[in-house]
Amino acid sequence: MTANPPAAFTGASRYVLDDELAAIVNISMALEMPLLLKGEPGTGKTMLAHAIAENLGMPLIVLNVKSSMKLVEALYQYDTLTRLNDSRFGDSQRDVSDIEAYIKMGKIGQAFVADTRTVLLIDEIDKADTDFQDDMLDVLDQMEFDIIEIDKTIQTRHRPVIIVTSNAKKDLSDPFLGRCNFHHIAFPDPKMMRKIIHVHFPDIDKALMDAAVETFYRLRELDSVEKRPATRELINWIRALRADPDFKPKNLSRGEVPFLGVLFKKSQDYQRASSVVHRRKLF
Fold first, then answer.
1. What CA–CA distance (Å, rounded) separates 231 from 203?
2. Which of 104, 124, 160, 197 is the most exposed place for a label (fewest CB within 10 A)?
3. Using one digit for the tens of pLDDT, what is the confidence trace for 235-253?
C-alpha cells in the first residue's frame, strides 16, 4: 500500500473552488479518510471528484449506488453463467477449473487493484441501506476484502482518494458518519455563481450576466417549486440565450423569460414559473 500522500488539490479548469472546500479535501487526503459531501443536487458534489482527478492526474472510478445494490457487487462479481456455458460448449480459451478467470472486479475492487492511485467516487450513498453503508466503510477502513469463491484476500495497491456524495434524502448511520470527514456544499451565492459562469463563458457580456443571474435567483425563490433550477440548468440556459439571435438582455428585466423548459424539468414547476412570468410578477 502506498504511504506517500497525494499532492495538494488546488482546483481544476472548470471547477470554482473556495478555500474551505479545498482545505477539507486536502486534509481528508492527508488523513486518508473518505470525504462525505452533502448538498442539494447541482451544487457540484459529483463534479468535485472529477476536478480532483483532473488536477492530480489520477484515474477516476465511479460507483453509482443503487437502492438494491449489495456490497459484493461493488467489490467483485463471479460470472457463474459464463463459466457454465464454457463448461457446456468447450469453445472458450479459459480453463473452466480456474474460478479466478471468471472473477471480475467491481468499482471498489478496480480502485484497489489499479496500478496507480485513483479517485474513487461513491455517488449517492444515501440510496443504499444501512448495512451496505457500514459494511462498505469496514472495507474502506481495512483496505482489503475477501473473494470467498477462491479464498483470496484482495489488498489495495494504492489507497484511493475517496469521495462520497449524498443528496441527504435519508439519514446516514452514526458509524458511517463517524468514519468520514464531512463538508456541506451550499448552493452558490450570486457572487460565486458569477465566477462559475465566467469559467464556462469567459467572453460573456456583462449585461447578459447580470440579467441572467438576477432572473435565475428570482426564479429559484418561487413558492411551490419542487425542483429548483441548479447551476447546470443556469449554464444551459445562458447557452440557449446566447444562441438566440433575437434575445436581448433587457428583455429579462422586463419580465420576458424565454426557454423556461431549460430551467424547470417538472411539469408542475414549469407551469408555476410560466404563470408567474406571464403575469409579469417576477420583477
1. 18
2. 104
3. 999 999 999 999 999 999 8
